[in-house]
Protein 1
Amino acid sequence: MCCDLKRRFLLLYATQKGQAKAIAEEIWQQAGAHGLEADVHCISEMDKYNLETEKDPVVIVISTTGTGDPPDTARKFVKKIQDTTLPPDHFAHLQYGLLGLGDSEYTFFCNGGKTVDRRLQELGAQHFYDTGLADDCVGLELVVDPWIDGLWLALKEAFLLQKEKEGMSSDAVSSSLSAAPHVGHELNLSSEVQNLALEDERVRSSDVLTQKLVDIHLVASTRDTEPSLVHSVPPVSQSALSIPALPPEYIEVQFQDTHGENPHLSSLISEGTTFEVSVTKAVQLTREDAIKTALLLELDIADTVFDYQPGDAFCVICPNNINEVEELLHILGLSEKGEYFVCVRVKEGTKKKGAAHPQHIPERSTLKFILTWCLEIRAIPKKAFLRALVECTSDAGEKRRLQELCSRQGASDYTRFIRDSNVCLLDLLHAFPSCKPSLNLLIEHLPKLQARSYSVSSSNLYQPGKLCFVFNIVEFPACPARPVSRKGVCTGWLAELVAPLLHPNKNTLDTKGGSSSTEKISIFARPNNNFHLPADPSVPFVMVGPGTGISPFIGFLQHRQKLREEHADWEFGETWLVFGCRHQDRDYLFKQLRCFLENGTLTHLKVCFSRDSSTAEVAPPKYVQDVIRLYAKEIARVLLKERGYFYVCGDKKHMADGVSDAVVDILSMEMEADKLEAMKILAMLREAKRYLQDVWS
């Protein structure tokens, strides 16, 4: 009994969109194969565990959200451990291993995990296993899989060390752990025939499966030698595969009648108060021949208590595309059941640890409501979902390919044909037509449909009772893995919603005569605690925002203009705006920026156009980072001598990194320092909240 207790470890996860939870569940599933028991909890469930008294090893899986913040589920935990009155030996008894999830596209990579890791160390906790930092930019599995593989030996050593410290014999624990089957042996399928087989009573005889395998190889030999979503080539096609354990089913769905009402959208949101507001204006800011279509929408918040500052963000509650929902119902054979109410409950006797009713699924609603408002049907399927889909696939060749895509050996194929291609469930069901998943499987594996976040592009001081925002209509072009083009879930829906409102005058912000609208959308606040105007109006600042990255700066300038009108005796600092787009005549979003320049709100306006040709002897700058370099002395003066602020908003990969590189070069040149020293200065500016970014990938 004592040995059984010592094989327990505490497993905590902190998730924003479900990734950390899915990885924690994978660890829990593998633990049993190693003779271990994972006591798994969301880190927010602080009534179910106590780190102050925890004697067993602790494993933490934690993601990062926003601009380097811990996920919402970890906020209370982080606040608790950051209590400055805690002594430096508060967690001296604690042995832990931490896996952080992040995206290197963002400046504060894995900062959620790093914050917890650093603080636990400060409070005396010790690593029993090295911290892992997984990068969603290149594929989480590149770090997650080997980190989990190494976890079991580290846990074994931690248990042995724990026994030695307690002065007890470790022989029993050692033999028990050694006897535990290795997960690789359990999951490593030893032959191609086994890879094709279902792991249940429906498995046919090995003779039939062997013949099917031969048939598959004959078909494959006539195909193109290039791999695709549905076709593999050696070595993957000839490999024995290590595939994830089959996730246990834990949801059952019962269809009821067609009578009743669906829940209000506000019941789906736990992040704060929702407001149903009217869309009062829609303006297309780009010309029809622009590469991207940018829209500005104006919302009426006059009759609400919704409040915001320039620089804040807010979230729009959006539905999945109704045509895609209908298509999914058709493929599932449930077209006739769309308006039926369904009851979702936890399956009795499920083997899933801590199985609970998904919080984002209403107790009672129609099937169509769940698929429209609750589940992210566009989500890129995780490997655990692919593993579950294997069991729903009747064609042997399709089954094998799905196994490859979720296997260790097929990791690069998964990245290329699913992750990087933005493949969703519908794409998979078209590509593998013999795959017929059950509704409960979708509810188990599809994540919550997330509200979409947008930067505010207005000032409540300048336009009382109004909230404006700007967005590009996201386009996903057709590709071999996705036969049809699609628009973004939220931007496509908004564009369709406001189509009757779009005004013919497409290049002005203050368009007159916009039609009234009865269309309403539901929103809730998501304040940005850092991306705000300097508290002292005399402090100078620089704004860099190409494309729709200019959005929050319109609010900045409107606010500053109103303050100047109301406080003529105040001292106002110098303001710079650097804007860029492809073509001056197609996508110069806010040409009335010159009004801010003329009335003195804006001191310097610098623009560039990356795709316009020039006949000038000296070619004009193409990109915002080129513009910044042209004004190196002025930028350095604002940042170093006048202690000003520097704001960047827009695309991370193709712009924000280039801007920060330019600033480093400027600091290095103007300070006559090496690049490393300049990078340290920039890091200090970030730390002081004087170099601020609102970026996306």
Protein 2
Amino acid sequence: MADHSGCCSTCATCLLCPYSCQWITAKKEKRKGLRTTKCDCSWFLFLFCVFLFTLVWLYFAIIILNDFHNFNEFIFRQRKLWLDWSLVLLVATAVLISYSSALLVLALCLQLCGQPLKLHWVHKILLILTALVVAAAFTGLGIKWAEEWKSARISLQATGPFLHIGAVGGMTLLAWPLASFIYRTRSTGLKVILLLVYCAAMIALYLAPLGITSPCIMEENQLPLKPALVGHRGAPMLAPENTLMSLHKAVDCDVQVFETDVMVSADGVPFLMHDEELTRTTNVQAVFPERAALNSTAFNWTDLQQLNAGSWFLERRPFPTVKSLSPADRKEAAKQRIPSLGQALEAAKQSNISIMFDLRPENHSDYQDFVNVTLAVILQSGIPLQQVLWLPDGFREDVKQQAPGVQHVYGRKRLENEKEPVLHVNLPYQDMSSEEIRQYRQDNISVNLYVVNQPWLFSVLWCSGVSSVTTNACQVLKEMEHPIWLLPSSTYFMIWIVVDCVSFLIIIWAFFLMKKCSHRRWPAESETDVLLTKINSLMQD
């Protein structure tokens, strides 16, 4: 395997200590005759693979932050425990990636200094555990949250050009330790294999932009209008969700639609509530502890008015933005009550925004009565019917007959043989490709995608031409006057060529320089090896 000789003794010792967990000076290491064996090379390869594996998981962790509030809500409904699990995810991922990257940097520095890659058994165990933890995370993601694979595909449209540049840069830097190893090793077969693998990887990276597509690679004058904002349960980062305060905060964020969820009380009053139980967003456990687990529809309106719908927001802090609320906002949030649909319609009418809602629970035996009661409240409110966006699929024909002015929004894609034209669709952002969005836009079909919180995702959908997005972060997206990045195809082509050419020149320079250094560094040792070989042959003769 590779011969080693040195950097300075102190530098070699400092590198060997954390990697091998042994305080061996360069001279002692040389006397002991430690060499990088095939087993050591195998562990280095495993270390490199674990680093890449963890790096991919870090990318996924950043991507799924857009939807992580849904995961927090899911855990609360299952365990009645509220915690911002995104912090746990990021801290754990940061620890894993920091550990594997630190070991990899040490290994590369040791290789450049000509020191043996003797990975300690503790590191070997920790690397195996790291790989198992990341594999378990990917497995859990695939089983419980499979739609996030679609999110990753969309994210590549936002990050593909930059991932390409980063990958080319990383592989280019890898040329230095690779060249050092190749000029030091005595195995011709290993040299050929490593060079072939490296060259194949670089050629694939150089040609990768041929397969990279992004809606944001376009001319400035082709950029569609900024998508309208739909407040998901209002402005839930600034106020308790599904409250009048949340609606007013959403209006301040220039949202055009207030999206909410409606349930009907036991005495027939429609009110705003997302969960089937009241435990997450009210103090029902303190007021009605024996009834806390009941469905929201089992409470009458008088009981519901006794509940506080804002104190939980200040106590649990579902979003980091809660910490930055002003004292006046905190005081107002603490006083929030469950609003009726009539109150929400009146507020929407005064604010001149539309209201879009789902009617829950769809499987209730009295669902038709829920529809009729809800329609009666809408008609009595005096709100212009074109400001009401109707989402529920159940008894939609009855709704069209009783309130013909209501706009109907469908939670599905259009069918080939539609009896009536579909003018509005409301879908998860993972369910529509950029090509489908463009086609719907050409056919004058309004497309609203949910839930979009991160600027990178909003930018991709903006470039694709989506009509509107439902968001928790209206205060963030409101401030965006332009997509995060927009590149004309000619500019991207020029960047691609320049990056590839610079990378190629650096790699050639690295191999040339390392070859020159290897001849200067080890000529005496090579001559000694030849002399010893000749003496050994003479003695045998």
Protein 3
Amino acid sequence: GALLVNERIDREELCGALSPCSLSFEIVVENPLELYSGTVEIQDINDNDPVFPSSQARLEISESVAAGARFPLESAQDPDVGINSLQTYQLSANPNFALDVQTRVDGSKYAELVLEKELDREEQRELNLVLTALDGGSPPRSAHVQIHIDVVDANDNAPVFNQSTYKASVRENTPSGTLVARISAYDLDDGPNGDIVYSFSSHTPAKVRELFALDSATGELRVKGQLDYEETKLYEIYLQAKDKGAVPGVAHCKVLVEVVDVNDNAPEVTVTSVYSPVPEDAAPGTVVALLSVTDLDSHDNGLVNYVNDNAPKSSQDSYDVYVLENNMPGIPILNVSATDPDLGRNAHLSYTLLQGDPTFGHLFSINRENGTLYLLTSLDHEEQMEFNMMVQVQDGGFPPLATNVSVSVFVTDLNDNAPMVLYPHPNTTATYTDVVAPGTPAGHMVTKVVAVDADAGYNAWISYTLLQATDPSLFSVGLHSGEIFTARQLREDDAPEHTLVILLKDHGEPVLSTSATISISVAEMVKEVLTDLTDVAPANDPRRHVTFYLILAVILVSAAFFITMLSVGIFKCYKWRQSKELYNSSRSTTYRTPGPFHHIDAVRSGFTPPSFYHQVYLTTDSRQSDLLCKKPFTSSPLGSRQGTIRNGEPGLYHQIVGTASRLPTPAE
């Protein structure tokens, strides 16, 4: 039962910086069968010297730096652990600097120069110091580095970080290029003295530089290598900001990056012992094999549960769904189907819509229990024709297993856009006049109607037809091109001006259409057309003012005559109505019509709204007259308007103005 060393043991090779360093083993004892676990701890001895990255270090320090300024120095590395690891630093005697030894979170040491007395470049241009690193062995081992300090003039202001310590957390499976943190510093100087360059501090370990990358211009710290929670749980990264002055000002900060564990390690099953063959008369409960399961993850990710070994499986890896645009909101468009061969909770499936695009949450929703995908709003083919998303199907196991299914939703086009005319422009007051010369032969292209349709496919196919023309036999239009040609040769007796109305229709269902109006002038040159359109009188014609005043005089006389005749007619009508009202008042009250008082009562008592009040005018011989009713009042910017119709509307109160020789019959 003795446990022997089989070969020379190197603790640093086996465990590196991990402490304690232990090796585990298992022992099986038979008759009776028992299983024992054991651990051998490898203890460290001081067999390694501290080592600096380089034998010399050079610093440039401005004479304007105030006392108390700190300057990080190159850190030494010692692969030993515990008391045998690097314990302290020592600095050679000098009048300006002292040494401050700091301890990191992991217990390692690093040194910083602290300026106790301000430097004077005129008194001393450079300093040479010796930094010694000592471990805690007995006797201690050491390493030395020469520090050369140049005292030079520098700009007045050094960069300043907005905080001295940054904290961030990142998952261990984070891909390369992922942003971890963004450090920021400012410098009050101008020009190059104010431009800041970010970099790793000198005592940042090489392993950290392999795992993280720092953008020198933006200060963005990103993942560069593969992080592993099982290897390192926390990284302490020291960064610095320098300006571009002749003597750069430097500021330092620290970034603490916590690595978050993910379930990236599958459980490992180890068969410790197998007893085979098994006798046919073995009693129930007889041990057949010994199994052990381990998981390198931590916390809940490292808990091992012997169930849920099947991920959900969808009937399809991807779905293509076609939806008509202008749909009703809230309709189901797809049912994602999946199964899981496990039992119980491990087979309970839930469906989730992964939010790759933030806008999808406002457009689509999925039922978590049955996988029905709903469309929450109305889609427009002209706005977006395709949506791609991912549906995750997850079981209820611990840890859960999931399967992703891609879904593509295609918005099919409806004919919901009429053709739009680009030329001639429909929304302008300018007149588009095309010119064709007399005698132009048949087949000559005069102009072209240009139009587009926002729809797609067959719905956007535009056809052009001649709807109306001054002379339908003179021009023709291309059915699909919109080009206007002469259908025959122009003759001298053809009209000089032609107006064409072109009908544009698409081929959708239902058909949508619009029209365009084209003006064509028959002239030898453009100057003749412009003369016809502008109708400008010659500037040297002395009779143009006389003609204008004659026309104005005729208009004024005609207007005065019209106003006079209109006033006389209104006065005559007023006198005639007064005589009628006097005549009606002398007749029997049995046949008298309601007066204005009754009209007001009828309107105000709610029998009919005032806007639907009608007046009816009858002649004395109403059996041969038509019933004239005023239309309801309607409001407009020019005031109230009334019209007459030649029939009455039932259910409306009517005021009778005039008299009748007898009561009308129901038929009348």
